[in-house]
Task: structure prediction
Amino acid sequence: MINDKNQSGFHLLSDNTDAFVARFALATMAEKTLDIQYYIMHDDASGQYLGYAILSAADRGVHVRILVDDINLSGRDNSLKMLSQHKNIEIRVFNPLSNRDWFRNLELITNLNRAGRRMHNKLFVADSNSAIVGGRNIGDEYFDARQNLNFVDLDLLTVGPIVDDITKSFNDYWESHWATTIESLNKTAVVKKQLYNIRRRLKDKWRRAKNTRYFQSLRQSDLTKKIINKQIPFIWANARLFYDLPEKLCDSATKKTIHFGPEVMSYFDLVKNELLIASPYFVPGSSGTDWLNNKHKQGVNIEVLTNSLAATDVIAVHAGYKKYRHQLVKAGIHISELKLTAKKFREKTNVFMKGISNSSLHAKYMVIDQQYVFIGSANIDPRSNNLNTEIGIMVDSRELAGLTKNLFNKTASLENSYQLQIDPSSNKLNWITKERNDELYFSTEPNAGLLRRLGVFILGLFPIEDLL
Result:
């Protein structure tokens, strides 16, 4: 029951299979509109399954708008233009590179000041009344569909008034001069028959996929049953949406009205007892380190969850994080690093997969005083703060905070992570974990090969922190 017309409903999507099911369900049940905005949309199995649902929605009259950042679109202009030939599908590319071929790689170097600024927002909105906001992009690694590595991530499925704000944020980006139609970027002639071929290919792939082990896990997911029975357990609470305006990508964008960072920091500045931070790319910088240390001195218990060197997918970021790690732990900040072999939070979704894939943290969330929960696309690093646009929701709910804290504690447990401590005799870091109920201690980065450690050392010599 909704007790207040201003409250919105929220459901945590911590399970990767449920996260796919939720997006597929929104596309399947949409009646009027689908607004889809992502930093990455892979053309892999998951991307094609969702593509089938999105194209099917357009076929039944749903107006589809897709806005995707250009950074990972190399070689896909033709297929996107073919899709945009559908009378109900519009596709725009955010901050497109001038070069649409191999030379785009050179442009990333020669024009880094513009090309390095990206739209990192992630949202999926159906009929302007249901939405998903969080850390996941569209791709196999976000939905437990890869064999070698899958991300540990978190989204919010939401309904209610907050969705109006989410739709407005999409429109701000859609109408921005940074968003360019795919037709303007690609001059290759396409015909409607090519759209027919895409539809047939996606339909054939869908038919073949329905009998796979992965799709058995989708059918048996908890969220699938809840959607069928119309029993999704929403938590109703007051909430506020924060998002950077597209103008943040301009060099001179320093106004607080453009960056959401100064606004959302007002919540964190008021923390009194406990702050939990999950950020896969954690580079707090000198000012962030000072802020954390000062809060700890004021009696705030601060716990940080990030990736270990073995688990991270971006070792350059680990090089930046490494500079502050020892100082933070010595000051009393609790830091846990996710293990490559962490798997407990994916017991259900892996049951139909061959073997067990490795893990990497990708969730970005914070819990303040067991009362406020912030979930979105932003990492704690200079890139999210200065170069990327981001989005996130602050929810005022002890119930949601409790569920999110339980998720944090499970992920940061000794079974799934390494907890960092200072060895008093050597003043060096130790990594502590549990394997088969035995506590293990490491004096160097655990399970990270020589090449990884060497790469971090070399990258740490370069002044690249502002780009991380």
In short: The radius of gyration is 22 Å. Residues 346-355 have pLDDT under 50 and may be disordered.
